[in-house]
Write a sequence for this structure.
């Protein structure tokens, strides 16, 4: 059924958008960023704030990645840079950061929930079939962003520098690459992508500071299933989980679909610990 | 030249960035760490503080500590604040007239977060640390059922404002919340007469929707209607596309969702994106829900409750004026009104009993009446639930006064699944 397929693709789109930022930070830089869900939420609340000031949701969607990217850059410079190669400390520090951000948002915005109107009310029609326009928009955004990220991390000069810094940091620096700048750029980019995901998702959900935890768990699931270190793997992991969730939710019940997906992930990791599309080391 | 990866610069390792763990260990520990901390976070969230009121024990002039368990965070956060403000207004009104039996009320509010584990901790804290001997509040049924297991052994009365699935009979439990016979039983026949006969039921997966739908199904059967589908969703769902697809496929005349709290708002919003042609009917829709939707989505939803803000009587006008002056948000719903009533009934019961001693207070509360914003209500001595007004209303928009009342019944007495409540003399 076309509806189920589109449901699956729109779910996959959300998952891909949320997870790709984590794939960059966790997969490439090996930083366990437990504040990733909060980057998502900061993007969402940027939309709320900009909507309050301007009356339009679109300003938020456009500006949120820059806002959250900026916040990510600050976090990298103050916190993350001291904790590379120290995973336990990073775990604790980013979790503490996540609590800080969540409670800070409660102070600023109140503990209550926020709802924004869905900005695209039109539906996509063909034949007798109809589908919400905003979800189509979401899919479109996800495709464009995935393509851009994959291009950025494979076909550009920046991609070469990133690989160099990851593989042999001292040699990269000796060759004149500013490794610290690359770290900042990559982390900020990962945060910006999470912020974008939060921004486009906001009109579809009811927003409160706790929502980030749900998307944090999902992001890790997608990245680990898809393969840590492989951006394409993350995208494909999102597609598999999104489509799987949609079909199972429709054919059976949502609770069963959730359980089945986690069972699938556990079995997969057991059989292929590096995920589906592990980056060759 | 500084490096954040100290120790690796100029090292003789074959690979720079020699990690502390192997890839396999890394993935395993990351997965465990994330799971453990995500699970632990709900326990950590319990440390969100409450507000202190202070005040002491038994003598005249000394403040009487009244505990309040309110869902300030969690899935019912959109009504939590209005419940808190309503409770405070009632307390202020009573204190302005000299308090209860000459003692001012000190309100101690704790966040129950719509989480039974947290609510139980907060209830214990109120009783054992703060020494309260009377508690108002709790919202969702799962929380109420958990808290009653704490308050009853401690012999602390709980006065609850929430309509629910019925069946709770307990000497230390009072309710200004409607029972199914006061809210569902009058509603379903009205629906089958005025809206449609084929129903699709969808609710959150816990006791309230299950219990309520049991009554709905019975009433639909009696009215000669049909149930096309019934399903339950977990809390915290962010995507309802599969459920909506099933609903569209079933094509009911009446869609009756009992998706709780903010999940309900998400559900209505997402449903609006699809071409659903049936009626949207639910007794869970209040002003608080409407405010979360935009006007086009809200228009046409039909609800039923003991109280809507547009109910036209002097007590309600006075209440709304005070409420909107005090609160940031202009809307209050039947839970807030229920708490306002509960606090006033408590004071009236204490006056009637001439004492704040729990056992005498319980006897005093029986039969007490009050001119509430919803209309006049009385506490039924046997069930310890109040009589209720009943209104059916259709939303014309998303503002606090967008409801249009289309049907009213007054002072419906509470029936109950339990005949005699043990330990009560009526």
């Amino acid at each position: 059924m076309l509806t189920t397929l589109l449901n699956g693709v729109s779910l996959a789109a959300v998952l891909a958008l949320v997870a790709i930022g984590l794939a960059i930070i966790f997969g490439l830089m090996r930083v366990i960023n437990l504040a990733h869900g909060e980057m998502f939420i900061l993007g969402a609340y940027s939309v709320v704030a900009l909507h309050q000031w301007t009356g339009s949701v679109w300003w938020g969607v456009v500006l949120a990645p820059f806002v959250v990217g900026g916040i990510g850059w600050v976090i990298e410079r103050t916190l993350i840079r001291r904790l590379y190669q120290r995973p336990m400390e990073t775990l604790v520090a980013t979790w503490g950061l996540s609590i800080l951000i969540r409670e800070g948002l409660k102070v600023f915005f109140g503990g209550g929930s926020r709802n924004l109107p869905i900005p695209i009310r039109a539906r996509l029609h063909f034949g007798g079939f109809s589908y919400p326009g905003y979800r189509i928009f979401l899919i479109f955004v996800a495709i464009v962003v995935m393509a851009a990220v994959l291009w950025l991390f494979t076909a550009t000069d920046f991609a070469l520098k990133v690989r160099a810094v990851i593989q042999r940091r001292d040699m990269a620096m000796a060759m004149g690459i500013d490794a610290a700048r690359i770290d900042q750029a990559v982390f900020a980019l990962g945060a910006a992508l999470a912020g974008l995901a939060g921004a486009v998702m906001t009109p579809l959900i009811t927003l409160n500071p706790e929502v980030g935890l749900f998307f944090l768990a999902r992001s890790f699931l997608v990245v680990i299933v898809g393969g840590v270190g492989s951006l394409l793997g993350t995208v494909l992991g999102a597609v598999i989980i999104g489509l799987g969730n949609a079909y199972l939710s429709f054919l059976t019940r949502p609770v069963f679909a959730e359980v089945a997906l986690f069972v699938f992930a556990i079995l997969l990791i057991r059989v292929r610990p590096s995920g589906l599309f592990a980056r060759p080391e | 030249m500084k490096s954040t990866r100290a120790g690796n610069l100029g090292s003789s390792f074959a690979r720079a960035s020699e990690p502390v763990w192997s890839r396999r260990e890394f993935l395993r520990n990351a997965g465990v760490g994330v799971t453990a901390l995500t699970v632990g976070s709900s326990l950590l969230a319990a440390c969100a503080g409450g507000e202190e009121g202070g005040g002491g024990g038994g003598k005249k002039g000394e403040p009487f500590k009244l505990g309040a368990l309110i869902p300030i965070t969690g899935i019912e956060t959109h009504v939590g604040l209005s419940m808190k403000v309503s409770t405070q207004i009632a307390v202020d009104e009573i204190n302005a007239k000299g308090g209860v039996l000459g003692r001012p009320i000190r309100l101690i509010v704790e966040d129950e977060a719509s989480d039974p584990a947290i609510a139980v901790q907060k209830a214990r804290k109120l009783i054992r640390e703060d020494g309260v001997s009377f508690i108002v509040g709790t919202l969702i049924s799962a929380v109420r059922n958990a808290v009653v297991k704490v308050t009853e052994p401690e012999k602390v009365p709980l006065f609850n404002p929430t309509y629910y699935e019925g069946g709770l009979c307990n000497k230390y439990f009072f309710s200004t919340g409607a029972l199914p016979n006061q809210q569902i039983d009058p509603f379903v026949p009205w629906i089958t007469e005025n809206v449609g006969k084929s129903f699709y039921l969808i609710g959150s997966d816990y006791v309230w929707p299950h219990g309520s739908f049991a009554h709905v199904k019975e009433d639909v059967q009696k009215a000669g209607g049909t149930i096309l589908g019934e399903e339950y969703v977990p809390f915290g769902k962010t995507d309802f596309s599969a459920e909506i697809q099933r609903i569209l496929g079933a094509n009911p005349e009446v869609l009756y969702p009992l998706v709780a709290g903010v999940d309900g708002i998400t559900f209505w919003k997402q449903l609006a994106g699809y071409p659903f042609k049936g009626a949207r009917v639910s007794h869970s829709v209040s002003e608080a829900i409407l405010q979360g939707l935009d006007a086009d989505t809200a228009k046409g939803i039909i609800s039923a409750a003991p109280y809507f803000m547009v109910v036209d009587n002097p007590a309600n006008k006075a209440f709304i004026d005070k409420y909107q002056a005090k609160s940031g948000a202009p809307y209050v719903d039947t839970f807030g009104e229920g708490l306002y009533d509960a606090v006033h009934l408590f004071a009236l019961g204490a006056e009637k009993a001439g004492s704040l001693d729990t056992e005498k207070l319980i006897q005093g509360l029986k039969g007490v009446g009050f001119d509430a914003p919803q209309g006049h209500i009385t506490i039924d001595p046997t069930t310890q639930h109040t009589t209720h007004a009943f209104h059916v209303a259709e939303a014309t928009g998303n503002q606090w006064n967008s409801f249009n009342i289309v049907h009213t019944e007054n002072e419906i007495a509470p029936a109950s699944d339990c005949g005699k409540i043990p330990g009560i003399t009526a």
Summary: Residues 74 and 383 of chain B are 30 Å apart (CA to CA). Confidence is low (pLDDT under 50) at residues 1-16, 47-57, 419-426 of chain B. Chain B touches chain A through 64 residues (CB under 8 Å). Residues 23-44 of chain B form the longest helix (22 residues).
